[in-house]
Amino acid sequence: MLYKAIYKIGVAVRNPSMIKIFSFLKESDKWSEKRLMDYQFERLKFMVDFAYGNTTYYKEKFDNAKFSPSDLINMEDLTKIPFLDKTDVLTHNTQIHTPATSKTFTAITSGSTGESLAFKRDEHADSFNRASAFRGYSWYGVKPWEKNGYFWGFNFSFSKRIKTRFLDTLQNRFRLFSYREEPLHSFVKKLKKTKYLHGYSSMIYQTAKLINRSNMSKPAHIKMIKGTSEKIFDNYQEEVKKAFGTKIVSEYGATESGVIAFECPEGNMHINMEGVLVEEIENEIVVTNLQMTSFPLIRYKLGDYIQLAPESKQCKCGRKHRILEEVTGRIGETIYGRTTEYPSLYFYYIFKNLSNTHNIKLNYQIVQNERGKLEVRIEQMMLESEKEKLKEEFLAYFNNDIAYSLKDDCTLQTSNSKLKSFISHL
Ligand SMILES: [Zn+2]
Predict the structure, then answer these.
(1) Is 122 within 8 Å of 100 (Cβ atoms)?
(2) 228 CA distance to ligand 1 middle (Å)
(3) What spacing in Å lies between the alpha carbon of 352 and ligand 1's midpoint?
(4) Which protein residues have their CB within 5 A of the ion that is ligand 1?
């Protein structure tokens, strides 16, 4: 196995602690809820102590808030710790970093919703993050070195493409560079021996549609399809299953936090409790990275709306890791009515109501170019009765404060292959 050997050498050089962390995570995968929570509390205490003792930022912040790490007696005391937000980590970037004790890598957030953040991630945290993802892969019998197809944007210059191809080859990876017929055919040919697919779900969906409409032969050995960083519409699944034989599972995470949750084969997103501590406060995620010492993130407002399942919810898979019901949207995107402002989360509710109450499943994209007006684009062809229901929902949320134009049967726009469900030009 050439690729396995290449992979192992890569790990030994870049992430020497990963193998050990992976075995730990496979073990803790079977832990009881109590044991997981005890572990989380131990790590939290460690991180809080460490941040207080090794950074000027947390020292001052905690002192100002009259919080001492010794106040942390049990998990309830967590609420005494002040929040950290995006502005804090950008403004006090240097003061949050701790003196390096091991190898670090520079991590940069995409900055698609604001200024991008750069920070140093220590080798342990980097390896922990990789191992967390690979534990998720293992639930589907996927080994990271197996042949995989990657969907991640088309924007490549020629020289960058050569470099990308080379790095892809090392990782037994190939990617789709264009939806044109010839590259698509060659991509589909390679799918025959592919074990897993990953990347933007909108691209996976587009490719699935093209495969289903053509007479190309369908891949038969795909064990897992992992979608990241954008909304997975309900409608995608049917098309994707038809083309690839299995549905898209979601991984939720962020550059700052690492893997936050991974969907199990029973369809529940389990929180990566060993790596992160997740709180839901007023529908918003607050996350503590339990492993990264180079740049401690304690009670960090990541900027997503989420919904945690009730603590009592059990999963058939047997894992006791807390379940994340849904990631409902990004914070800070505002819809402007003529007189009032609304959070973009409203779109989520509107389309969820349509799906749950009326069984109308739509792939949508909403564009705002001016105050009080929205352009609603729907991929499906809609019946008059469906349009009426949509109108009712919009009325319920926006009254007559916003007018909208509706276009059905249209292609949703992607920027650099990432599909945004709300685009505001205001
Ligand atoms: Zn499960």
Answers:
(1) yes
(2) 18
(3) 23
(4) 264, 266, 268, 315, 317, 319
pLDDT of residue 417: 58
85 and 301 in contact (C-beta within 8 Å)? yes
Domains of the chain, first to last: 1-331 (3.40.50.12780), 334-424 (3.30.300.30)
Alpha helix stretches (DSSP H) within 329-383: 345-358
Centre of ligand 1 from the C-alpha of residue 262, in Å? 9
End-to-end CA distance of the chain: 53
Given a cut of 90, whether residue 66 has pLDDT beyond it is yes
Across the range 287-311, mean pLDDT stands at 96
Please name the amino acid found at residue 355. Answer: S
pLDDT tens for each residue of 17-43? 999 999 999 999 999 999 999 999 999
3 state DSSP class of 159: helix
User: 301: which strand partners?
Assistant: 286
Between strands 173-175 and 364-368, the pairing is unpaired
**Per-residue pLDDT tens for 258-268?**
999 999 999 99
Give distance in angstroms: CA of 35 to centre of ligand 1: 17
The phi and psi torsions of 225 (rounded to 5 degrees) equal: -125, 120
The greatest distance separating any two alpha carbons of the chain, rounded to the nearest whole angstrom, comes to 67
> Ligand 1 center to residue 266 CA distance, Å?
5
Q: By C-alpha distance, which of 221, 223, 201 is closest to 151?
A: 201
The reported pLDDT for the residue numbered 164 is 81
- 358-395 residues labelled b (16+ CB within 10 A) or e (exposed): eebebbbbbbbeeebebebbbbeebeeebeebbeebbe
Consecutive H or E run containing 334: strand 334-336
What is the 43 CA–ligand 1 centroid distance (Å)? 24
Question: How far is Cα 36 from Cα 1, in angstroms, rounded to an integer?
Answer: 36
Phi, psi of 200 (to 5 degrees): -65, 130
Residue located via tokens 């936050």: 260
